[in-house]
Each structure stands twice: as C-alpha cells, then as structure tokens.
Amino acid sequence: MRDRVRGAGDAGASAWARYRVLAAEYRRERAVVRGLVAVSAGVVAAGMLPWRAGPVVAIVVFVGHTLYERSRHEPLAEWRRGALAERRTGRRLRRLDPVGHRVLHDRALPGATANLDHLVVGLTGVYAIVSRRWRWGVRVRVEGRRLWVGRRPVGNVAVAARAARTVSEGLSKELDHRVAVMPMVAVHGARVPRGGLEHAGVALYAVREVTAVITGEPVIFTSAQVATVAAAAERLFPPMAGPYPAR
Q: Is 112 left (phi over 0), alpha (psi -120 to 50) or beta?
C-alpha cells in the first residue's frame, strides 16, 4: 500500500500480465497432452503390474509432466522469472525512505519497445533500474568489451542505458534544465562482485546492494526538488499497458 501512496505502479505488472496471457494460451493444450500421457502410462502400468499401480503411475506421470513443461517452456518461464525479479526489486526499493525518495515501477517510455522496470527519484539523483534474473550461482563478469554471465555473453543490459537516456531527455526538456539519470541493473540469482561492476556505462549490482548504492551517493537534490522531478516523471512516463515489451 505504501508504494501506491507514493504514486508507484505495481512492480512487474506488465511482465506478469504477459506471463498470464501466455499461460492461458497454452494451458488447455498442455492439459490435454498431459492427461493423455498420464492415462496411457497408467493403463500400461496396470497391465504389466498389479492394477493398483496404474493410478499411482498416472499421478506420478501427470505431476512429472507438469513440472517438465513448466521448466521446458522457455518463453513462459522467462516472463515468469522476469516478473518475479521485478517484484523482488520492488520490495527492496520499498526500504528507501519515502520522505526523500519516489519510486515508480513498470513505466512506459515514449518511442521505446521496452518498458522501464523501476525509476527512482531521490536525494542523490535519478536512477533507471532494470531487473535481470540469471541462473543461480553463475558469475557475472566483464571481459574486454563483453559482459558474460557464466559462459554466455549477454547484451540485454543496454536496455538500461537506453531507458536512462530517454528519461534524461524527457525530464530535461520538461523541467528546462539537464537531469542526469544513472542506468542500473539489479541482478538476481547470478553472482556479482561486491561493490558491483560497470559495462558500457551501465552499473550492475546484486539486488541486495541497490538501495545502499542509491543512498550512498552524494546528495544533489532537496526534498522539494525530488517531488518536482518525480511529478514530472509521473506525467511523462505512465504505467505500462499492453502491448507488452519483449524481454
């Protein structure tokens, strides 16, 4: 409720909505296939083993197939992981003092295909934050000009830099003075060096460090200026609505 009082939309709302749309599209198809597989396995088991084994095998196969499909359906799983990561980041950002900070979630950006997960306007500046969930325990590092997560190079953090530029340009024009915006990625699951790292102008931090980073920067705004900038951001960047952005 406090997030709503501060004018923030729901963290991960559009990603969760997209997940639910995809889940609904595939739910009936998956249920039919799952039922046929389970019944077939149960019939075979009842014919080869004592008949009581049939229902047990059918149930086991049904549950196993459900879990398998949930992990195998990558687009669906990706939207779900993304939505949950945004929600966790949102809960972290609620720890910021509401007197000196305004937090906006899931914002539409004009002329952009992707939304902005989180926008923080605080005493220490303005932050465009993107949540990213990568495989648990793998290491995030920078080698040369590339960002690596485990053994795989990734490039989707550039969305944070583009979002920061869009927000900076919009706020600067609206307020008639330059407003700098720091692009940041809140990392879930994967291991980020303590103190974060930087790639292509984007700062990456473990999600647990994000609020400390924001409050640890030098103060550049007054509370009144925070309110003014946040009000402009509310006008320029409304809560996201469909069509949903690609992740």
A: beta
User: Tokens representing 84?
Assistant: 């949950």
Total-model pTM: 0.73
Residue 191, both tokens? 């291991």
User: Rounded CA gap, 154 and 142, in Å?
Assistant: 10
Nearest residue to 240 via CA among 73, 125, 110, 129:
110
How far is Cα 245 from Cα 116, in angstroms, rounded to an integer? 10
Work out whether the CA dihedral 204, 205, 211, 214 comes out positive or negative. Answer: negative
> Given a cut of 80, is residue 165 above it in pLDDT?
yes
Say how far apart CA 83 and CA 33 lie, in whole Å: 27
Residue pair 106/10 in contact by the 8 Å Cβ criterion: yes
Give residue for tokens 């004018």. 7
For residue range 86-105, what is the model confidence (pLDDT) as tens digits? 889 999 999 999 999 999 99
Q: Name the region of 189 (left: φ>0; alpha: ψ -120 to 50; beta: rest).
A: left
